[in-house]
């Protein structure tokens, strides 16, 4: 807010030398904004919080609801009753976009429009650094991954023949994908992966057979996924992309949390270089460590048709909040900080594989061999299933959760699940009959070595507790008296704590 004239006048109140020093400090922060607007990519070094706050405050003053002399008499004038809510949103209350285009400039909100456009540019730069090359424009939406997938499928559907009502989906046992397809009014054709050793891989022959059986003109698109729970590997997106180009059907890639893994980014890049990829969807919270509520849609360079269709089909204005979360985070990281996050995650993945393998080996279990999954890993529970009643180990996840371990998934064979009228056998495993029970853990962005160490410590306690309970149950079934002294001895023998 200080103009050169204001600084000159300030010298009449405070020593000129001190005013000059202060003006140089504010000019330094102003240069950050100038560089950002000029280069339109991540700053090399992350900004400090005060610089980010100052930038957002000045941008907010460009929105009409913050004009000193504004008189709003419309039905929507960014009126916010609670000062707390207003501060939470930096007084940016107009939202982004217009009814015809979610990325369009908002006449009443020049500041919000500027922040939105900058966010899309910075996200594109961050994804390029992560390994997504030859990428076209990105679109950050204030919708989580599932709803964004639905919008993308509707956009693809609008470009396909009227008869194209089927989606050939490479099975990935998460309800979100199924509901996204059904919410778009499309019919789901499930193609299960094939089991190769421990790993579940894309069955390319089955995908082709499903498309040809339906008839390519009746297929809206094939949906593949990169990031997933082990033992499923990321799909062979580049091979599917070549197939889709050959058969002339759409191809949507669910890259939910794949941005953080270089190998997955390279596979997506190969896919849109070698074949057909209409759109790629990724989550903002999983990839950029922000609250849930946003997603990014992109495609290869020179192929922005579906991204544009999504942008123009978004009904009404959109909230700027998820967009702002990403902008603040990326400015705070800078390109160097973002690269460190990616490198740290790779390091933690290798560390987790080593430590987790050692830990579970102590109890007769093993890491599943899933080289095609660079984020998630699976651990067998076969030995412990033999110790439990009816072979059920599903409660092992509850044991971990009660010890404040979150994020693990225990999958036991035989579960049948109905999702929107589609019935899956062996749900959770992405396979009708995966041969062993297991649990998963992920070395995702933000996970630390300390997290891994604490996880392994709690895991050891769970294994010991599981075995102790199994031993007690076995003695009870044999008719032995449950002598407290014997129980304490069992605890010692099992290393109980």
Number of strands: 14
CATH homologous superfamily of the largest domain, by name?
Type I PLP-dependent aspartate aminotransferase-like (Major domain)
Helical proportion?
A: 40-55%
What sort of overall outline do the alpha carbons produce when their principal axes are compared? globular
Structural class: alpha/beta
Number of domains: 3
Task: Tell me what portion of residues adopts beta-strand conformation.
Answer: 5-15%
Strands side by side in the biggest sheet: 1-9-8-7-6-2-3
Span of the ends, CA to CA: 62 Å
Q: Give the integer mean of the pLDDT values.
A: 92
What do we call the CATH topology of the largest domain? Aspartate Aminotransferase, domain 2
Poorly predicted runs are 480-497
Assigned CATH architecture of the largest domain:
3-Layer(aba) Sandwich
Key features?
single chain, 497 residues, alpha/beta, Arc Repressor Mutant, subunit A, Aspartate Aminotransferase, domain 2, Aspartate Aminotransferase, domain 1, 7-stranded mixed beta sheet, 3-stranded antiparallel beta sheet, globular, disordered C terminus, tRNA binding, O-phosphoseryl-tRNA(Sec) selenium transferase activity, O-phosphoseryl-tRNA(Sec) selenium transferase, cytoplasm, RNA-binding
